[in-house]
Amino acid sequence: MTAALMGSAAPDAEMPDLPADLHGRIAFLAAPTEVACAARQRLIARHGDAALEDAVVIVALGGDGFMLETQHRFLGRNLPTYGMNCGSVGFLMNDFHEDDLTQRLAAAQSAVLHPLRMRSVDGDGTVHEALAINEVSLLRETRQAAKIRIVVDGKERLPELICDGILVSTPAGSTAYNLSAHGPIVPLGTNLLPMTPISAFRPRRWRGALLPAEARVTFEVLEPAKRPVAAVADYVEVRDVRSVEVREDRNMRLTLLFDPDHGLSERIIAEQFTV
Fold it and tell me: How far apart (Å, rounded) are the C-alpha atoms in residues 161 and 180?
């Protein structure tokens, strides 16, 4: 599955100021594919290549999965990142062109995103924390369906969900696993987080909920010895969890850059009319 991005986000905004001369100020990163690595070498020959500690902007060459890895790698630094598609779907990426990169960077618009923070407690009582740019999901580990209690802001909302799993998604991540699980696509700037069950058995007709971005969600695993559950924040997995808390981390910011006619908000809206 393609990994569409991230946390709740402000609508597309003007690009943060960049130096007029970007030669040697761009860090070029490439996915480990022949196409992406070759493109990186050609772009470096034109624009130079900044060390990551000196860069003012990152250009990521690859697909959505590589963009997700890049954002996780630089969480906390908030380096503006401009992706160019050298992969497959490229939902988070701009089209690949070599000739006008500096002009495109100067004209780019930004989407400011906030990830989800997962805090899980396993069967030994160990606490694990991780950040998710797409979603936090709970998944059954065996043939037995999971049984999960759902609490939102300290109030029980569902005493027992029998299912293959459940997830909480960011707005940009709503077009990834959430969409495949038949969850709603959420436009940026709505400050909503989709909660979507995965193959719900009881209550059979429950299709999930839209929660305010500031909500604090707690999942409690029922009958964990018989029905073990794993928790996953993007690609960080914790096995045999007993409880999982999910909230948006407003202290973490991610800035993605898009061509003006191809912004992330527009893509999310357009995806809802794709047949």
Answer: 19
Backbone angles phi, psi at 22, to 5 degrees: -100, 0
Domains (ranges, CATH) in the chain?
Answer: 8-114+252-271 (3.40.50.10330), 116-248 (2.60.200.30)
Mean pLDDT along residues 93-99: 90
**Measured between alpha carbons, how far is 185 from 171 in angstroms, rounded to an integer?**
7
Active-site residue flag, 100: no
Q: Which two tokens stand for residue 219?
A: 């999942």
How many beta carbons lie within 10 A of that of residue 186, not counting itself?
Answer: 24
Element of type H or E holding 123: none
Selection from 2, 1, 4 nearest residue 169 by Cα: 4
Closest CA to 123 of 242, 237, 261: 242
pLDDT of 240-270, one tens digit each? 999 999 999 999 988 989 988 766 667 777 7
Q: Which of 12, 49, 64, 122 is catalytic?
A: 64
Q: Which two tokens stand for residue 177?
A: 């696993």
Distance (Å, rounded) from C-alpha 20 to C-alpha 33? 31
Structure tokens of 8?
């709740």
CA distance 275 to 272: 8
